[in-house]
Queue: 3 jobs
Job 1
Amino acid sequence: MTITPLMPVYPRCAVRPVRGDHCHLIGEDGTRYLDFAAGIAVNLLGHSHPGLIGAIQQQAATLMHVSNLYGSPQGERLAQRLVDLTFADTVFFTNSGAEAVECAIKTARAYHQHGGDPNRFELITFNNAFHGRTMATISASDQAKMHSGFAPLLPGFRYVEFGDLQAAAAAIGPQTAGFLVEPMQGEGGIRLASQPFLQGLRELADEHDLMLVLDEVQTGVARTGTMYLHEQFGLQPDILATAKGIGGGFPLGACLATEKAARGMTFGTHGSTYGGNPLAMAAGNAVLDVVSDPVFLEHVRTLSDRLKTRLNQFIGNYPDLFEEVRGRGLMLGLRLRTEPRAFMQHLRDHHQLLTVAAGDNTLRLLPPLVIGDAEIEEFFAKLSAGAASFPMSQVA
Ligand SMILES: *Cc1c(COP(=O)(O)O)cnc(C)c1O
């Protein structure tokens, strides 16, 4: 037998974290890493936040899980808070981002099919998108690397160039149900939608009675300096998928919708055994207690400005290595002149700085939102040392 007990779908690196301490991870061998990956934009409060730990401990000791056959005071509270904080009128809780997107896709289709138009099933999606790894969510992305071996894909998705409003308009037909788009692509390389593009999609949706579905799984929950990134565009979606940071490390996601958009989501149309269980709701409420505070959101924007200003000065010292600083809030990207994996590994293995590689030659910087000046100083010390010692022979 040569297959590993953990199905070998991830090329796992040699770092083996066993403990977290605020913005640091400690490996099996005792090595301490500065964590600017945060579990891929998940650990908003870092790794040992007393509020989050306390909430989970207390709820675990009280009631963990009962299924959705029963009333949920815990779920009602978190749903009401999300409704109060956002465009949404109603919330379905999931256990992951892909499930949140799945629910969003079903909600968009049901909007039309419940409204008497069974032919409107197709979502227009965008090149280099990432929506998850389930059959529907890989089908929603044009990325061939995620399709290989898994044919046939699910019908009902049409891909157009990210940012090309005219192509999106031209793709609308009698079968179109809506648009599914990340307001800033994460996995695709920290690519922010332009104002005219996103606003144009909103206008096209209004004009043709289509659903604007935003995938804010990575950009949501204060990560970009507002509760959700679309707020910074001055527009609202009909349906939104959120996950990653929302549980602060506890598996949790949600599909948010307006009352109109959710008209097809009636009794018996959707479900989840675990979704929104009391333990997950306790984690979600504890995260919201911290991140929905306007003072905290201001802190994220202030630190973002500080990081971006210094990053822009810094990359000027290494024009052969870096091209551009990207992103919003604490979802930042360093665009390299080469594929970013070698530099990511160099920072990790030689300077104990964890980051995440993405598409479009971009290195993602996704620190916990609770970083402060000390972590920023440590980050620049490690990044500078990493850039200075990086063998430029690795830049093609
Ligand atoms: C991570 C991600 C997903 C999938 O979330 P999972 O929890 O891994 O299923 C979907 N959309 C976007 C934009 C993401 O970044």
Job 2
Amino acid sequence: MAGTSWRCTVLIIGLCCGRLTTSYTQDTLCPKPAISEDAILVTFLSDVNLTCAGCDGQVFWSHGSPYKSQRPLEKAESGHLVLRAVAYDDEGNYTCYKDGAPVCTVELLVRDQPQEGTSLSCYNPHPTHNITCEWSPTELLHPFSTATLVKVRVPEEPLFFPCTYDGGRRIFTCSSLHNEADYSKQVFLLCVRSRTDSVRAASLEANWRDLLHIGPPLNVQVTKVEKHPRRLEVRWSLPEFWEEPYYRLKYQVLYQVENSLHQSNGTTDDTSFIIHDAVMRRQHLIRVRATEEYQENWGSWSKDAKGVPWSDGATMTQVPNEDHTPTPQQPEDPENEVGVLTVSRGVFRSWIAPGVSLALVILFLLGLWIRYQEVRMVKLHCGFLRSLVQSSSIEDRAPPPPVTESLLSSVVVTVPPLLEGD
Ligand SMILES: *[C@@H]1O[C@H](CO)[C@@H](O)[C@H](O)[C@H]1NC(C)=O
Ligand SMILES: *[C@@H]1O[C@H](CO)[C@@H](O)[C@H](O)[C@H]1NC(C)=O
Ligand SMILES: *[C@@H]1O[C@H](CO)[C@@H](O)[C@H](O)[C@H]1NC(C)=O
Ligand SMILES: *[C@@H]1O[C@H](CO)[C@@H](O)[C@H](O)[C@H]1NC(C)=O
């Protein structure tokens, strides 16, 4: 399988660039190491049966290797040394001794197991930075193995970049120079070279646009907007490695009420965004990602930032049901409505007790007065005056009771959620 895709890559390169076709072979890009023709090549963890010319009968084998060998000097009856499940430290020269004298030597080399299904991942964190490629082997590699990244971009000559190995993460990382003006297709190959072989372990064909991986915007912070119970202000800083102003970014802000499935989003060129349709008093989860302004290639999302819009206790009287039925898509309250709401809330708070008492007293007196007037009117049989007083009594009497009622009921409703909220 790997061989087939390799041939395809060679074919593509060959078709693109007839001039260089012949030089683009696996041997050019991943050149094979020179090994002794007499050496015995064994794949890691397989068995081997060693012998060499003149080694027969009762003999001893000694192992000379660069490693501290696990296997002691071996006695053999038939001139054959059998090693099971060879490891890398079995490599080296095995000398056959007969009657105390060396007869012959054979070199054993251990080949890596094939790396199946590995992939090369390359990314460019910023147009002016190198392209970084990473590869993790699935199988144990020979301690002497090295990896090289080969960048093939027709019609230029291939470029070779060495990779470094991070033993902790078991990852090879390679850094390849990137030309800012280079938007064309490039092929990356990863060659793994050991003492015995050099193989193309993985490859990647991509346009620069697909390699541009913009990191998540950093320090995403959500703040309340004073006196705006449906707004949240989100601010963040540029993703790591991003330098303005030569390359500008566009951002997308994704937000949702916590535990709700509905998501909303907005875009901006700035490093801040105001959410206008937040749900009052609810926790919101907000994340941001970026793309280069001309490349629609979104980077990674930031971690979730959280925020609750500004509120004051009385907000609950406006939407008593909202805790149970969140409706994130409601349009924002008009600016002035919020203002009025805020002012009336302030007035409500400072004047509530004396105001309500005063209103009740006035209503009581007004009622008495109207009763008195009505009685008097009836007594006077004066239709004109009576109608006047009736209309004025409708105006005066009708509005105050609902106001009083709503004020009273809101006092009752408000108290438990206020305590809850705190
Ligand atoms: C090793 O090879 C020799 C000859 O090639 C053979 O006679 C012997 O049985 C082999 N030993 C093992 C354990 O396979
Ligand atoms: C084994 O012998 C060959 C040549 O005889 C030599 O080049 C090689 O370095 C030796 N290997 C070790 C591990 O000593
Ligand atoms: C870019 O890649 C080249 C070639 O691998 C390397 O020499 C250079 O140090 C890299 N630069 C940075 C900033 O990583
Ligand atoms: C952003 O919103 C638009 C329409 O409102 C929608 O089509 C799109 O899928 C959303 N994007 C994300 C990432 O949720």
Job 3
Amino acid sequence: MEEPVLFERSVSGRRGVSPAEHDVPVTDVSALIPERFLRSQGEEAETTYDPMLPEVSELEVVRHYTRLSQWNFGVDTGFYPLGSCTMKYNPKINEDIARLDGFTTIHPYLDESLTQGALKLMYELEGYLAEITGMEAITLQPSAGAHGELCGLLMISKCLKARGEHRTKVLIPDTAHGTNPASSHLAGFKVVQIESGADGCITLDSIKEAMDTDVAALMLTNPNTLGLFEHDIVEIAEIVHERGGFVFCDGANMNALMGLVRLGELGVDVVQLNLHKTFSTPHGGGGPGSGPVGVGAELAPYLPTPRIKKESGIKREGESYSFEYDRPDSIGRLKAFYGNFAIMVRAYGYIRRCGPVGLRRVSETAILNANYIKQRLKSTFDLPYDDKPCMHEAVFSDTGLKETGVNTMDVAKRLIDYGIHPPTVYFPMVVGGAIMVEPTETESKAELDDFIAAMEAIAEEAKEKPELLRNAPFTTKVSRVDETRAARVPKLKWMPKDHMTAFD
Ligand SMILES: *Cc1c(COP(=O)(O)O)cnc(C)c1O
């Protein structure tokens, strides 16, 4: 568990590889690059030290990184019920497909005649996502959910301008993900928080009261972050529309809706999706994402440029695909080229292989699994709201543990000792000590039973040996970390002491 950084393993002169002797004449690089640009050279050199590379053997490198990878937790190593994140197992075949040479060796600057397959894939993926969400048109440009939210709000803003209206506010329920108010702020709107009702959903009355001619949009997550379907969404949308606003649905929870509900038919004007949650891109660790946005007819002209266009027999025989840039009302470009392509390939592969029936089963199974956990654990951990069926995630609270002095954080940390990644905790914030469990469709009943048994065992431990829980976990490299300090005083780089001065 005590793994030094690679630099500390460095031994001067040690080599990882020994290439064969070269058989071409030696050339002095300074003949090619002006001397002042070279490291460790010349009076005027900007950089006067040698590159600080660790000198290690191949085996040391392999073992170092393999050991580091083993400290990590991932969906490939265990149950990862992180609510709101949809951490599901994704078929490895989609990784293989995304790595095919035909996809990885093309470049967006190639002539369109050479990238017809990629354009067709993106065009068809837009069509599938439009079908799944019930929206008129989709853009694949945004690179994450939050980026998609910004995209949607910028379109709303531009559309309002075209209507000659100036609306400054966005309504956001108190259960919303933090990106909703952040994106609204970035798009220049003021955020008005809406309190959820006694059953965890937004009430018609609260919308009637808040919805005036200064409101540009309501941003609603459905199902919301309590895992509950916003049952009044149709009537809510009607009120918002009557008073000239737009309904933005945060579609990060699409894993609960595929094949079951088409948001466009419920009155949603714009929705963002997270391909890295619902559609087969593994996430976590800050890897690339994709946050396509779907819109209804009124917002379609404002979609980012370029769009992908399909034509028959114009430039070539048969169908051809091209980028369309001439869209005068567009909000412009949001991302280099057309977004994160490899993620689209995975989503395309996933949707094609599941098909309509398969996608519906994904959502049904995700919902079934969450309800199974909710039913089995509701006598051990409190449910913050009435015991109604949930969608794809179940939220518990730690109120029942109060007497033991153990809280949600202790339960989460102890789960690690049981080989399980903690669920999302302390979110949504309307629930005190929230424990938000999203099992996803990919877990077996045996796995769910193991999780339930672990949670029950921890609840027993809370009564019998609370101090044990307060010090958990015991099986990891580090136990409790000071999370506040880690965020406030991050230590982002390390370098050998003798090189420090070079950077001072
Ligand atoms: C994950 C999530 C987001 C943000 O998506 P990113 O892709 O992380 O930017 C927004 N809303 C909800 C409800 C989410 O779960």
